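2024-03-11 09:14:02 INFO receiving multi-entity request
2024-03-11 09:14:02 INFO entity count = two
2024-03-11 09:14:03 INFO echoing inputs for audit
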Amino acid sequence: MLSALLVMAAVAVVLGAVLGFAAIKFRTEGNPLVDKIDAILPQTQCGQCSYPGCKPYATAIAAGEAEINRCPPGGEEGIQKLADLLGVDFKPFGDDTAAPKPKSVAYIDENTCIGCTLCIQACPVDAISGASKQMHTIIAAECTGCELCVPPCPVDCISMVAIGEQITNWKWKYPAYALSPSSRTVDGRVSQ
Amino acid sequence: MRSLHQFHGGIHPPSHKAQSTLLGIAPVPLPAKLIVPFHQHAGEAAKPVVQVGSRVLKGQIIGLPDGHISSAVHAPTSGTVSAIGMHPVAHPSGLPNLCATLIPDGREQWEQHRRFDYRTRNASELQQQLRLAGIVGLGGAAFPSDIKLRIGRRQVDTLILNAAECEPYITCDDMLIRERAAEIVKGAEMLRFIVDAREVLIGIEDNKPEAIAAMQRAVKDEGMPFEVVTIPTIYPGGGAKQLIRVLTGLEVPSGTLPPDIGVQSFNVATTYSVYRALAHGEPLLSRIVTVTGNVRQARNYEALIGTPIDELVALGEALPDTNGYIMGGPMMGLPLPEVRVPVVKATNCVIAASEKLFPLQFPAMPCIRCTRCVEVCPAELQPQDLYWFSRAREFGKAQAFSLFDCIECGACSYVCPSHIPLVQYFRFAKSEIHAREKDKQAADSARERHEYHTFRIEREKREKAEKLAAKEKAAFAAKSGTAETQPQHVPSDLEKSREHIREIAQSAVEHTEEGAPK
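2024-03-11 09:21:47 INFO inference complete, emitting structure
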């Protein structure tokens, strides 16, 4: 009887030690769900979701405080991905969210810029270079198109320019079928 | 006699090669203008280094390589740069790209270049030389050759010269070998020298007996221990991985490159231009282009890079029922958006198309899962599954089924009894996946920059608070007795710039109301 009790106690101690060790060794910092959500968000840091950046929005979604359809730059595909991740239903954009726009970058009219640095302070990703009373310019490759630099400009010299389709970002289209034999198919040039 | 191996699948389309091999290679008369694109190779576009109005000499660099995978672009003849701007190019999108327009002066004045002995240079000097000479793969992919010559994880034992030229209609490599085999062999020795390969194999398909004979003669005359291997004609036997398989029996594993298994291959035309670059210091200024299809006289031409294709097809005299032009072969080539696009380094062939040569296809019908595509796929993929996933936009699954091992040879589309444009679907899926990866990278970089931005703002705030605290402490100390070290109020940099902003914003009268900082 006593030996059985001792064996059980010893097993309990060992297992407890293993669990305790595992709890320290494999401890997760922060909420992993927040990072997963943040990885789906497009990182424009535009604040259109009413949160001050993508991470705060991700935190709010993880806490169940925010809907998944608040991110226009992510588009419907983003909502779908969030729905898949969280196991909830897809939810279309509501009337209160801005419609998704084509990706664009900010452009500073350098003739009008007075060098006030207000846009530099507004840029969430430090994509504007310039200094006080010096002309500013956008580092286009780093611009996320968040539009946060547009309202602070006292001389309205910043405009958003849609990137559009260029040879560098062109994609093959979804193949179009010919509906009748009289119209040529996209691949209709295989030699017979 | 070397025992040959086989790759999986393959097809036997009619070759249509005889018509363009009746006459020798002819030079193209100097065109009135040349349009030289800055992006003619895989990787990053070259950076323009000339200005509108500059006079350039033949062989002068007009675009410098920009980035790791890039190549130089040269003036194909002497003349004046009349424009640098967007011009239609041979690209499936039909979108224009940055080109320099050169008006030749007809004097063909060379920039100074000299012969040198490649044996006195080391491999990395020679690679740099090739990069600046703009040498890229002339088989169609236009991959910079210097990158292929970099020493990888292991020693390259076997160097393969790709002269298979498996695609129908194209004969530019065939004619080049017939006429300039000796130079190709010398170029092969240079490549062998750079990678220090043990053996050199030259693979030529058996439908080119004249080229095989010419190459064997040249190898013998040069006294090189190279082996000319006749391989069976089957499409796509000229694919790099397929040719390596046939010649060596080795298979390039998915996700690796040929050098990882000790093999590297170069196209024969590339090898010829390597010879011109390393023996004579001549950059890549021209290439052999097959003009064939629905033309009165099919023939190979030596065309300067930048020659408008309409001038080239004018030499072949396209027949009146021509309804379009294809750059490359009928299997992998691309229909030209318009005929005034220039010849680029990848232009191996221009086919005038007509209803008769390329009859209209039946409309695509549903996949019946006959798996004929599986039987012919040289990459041993399951095209019908890839089609299914690409069509349903299930890109993750398509990738899991090795979509990126597809070489887009078009054998599956060719045999499909339902006439499904399979390759189109694969290209669509590939470019969607690439675009997503690019977006992901951009998002990651934006996240990083934003995190640093917030960190910086926090740090500035903290530093300011610390300064303020120190100041208050000093003020308190001054008040309580020792008055000699009274600190003056020195405006911090931040306050100074705030002051600037206020001044500037107020001076912008028309916007004062709504734009002034609060």
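2024-03-11 09:21:48 INFO post-check: Chain A touches chain B through 53 residues (CB under 8 Å).
2024-03-11 09:21:48 INFO post-check: Confidence is low (pLDDT under 50) at residues 180-192 of chain A.
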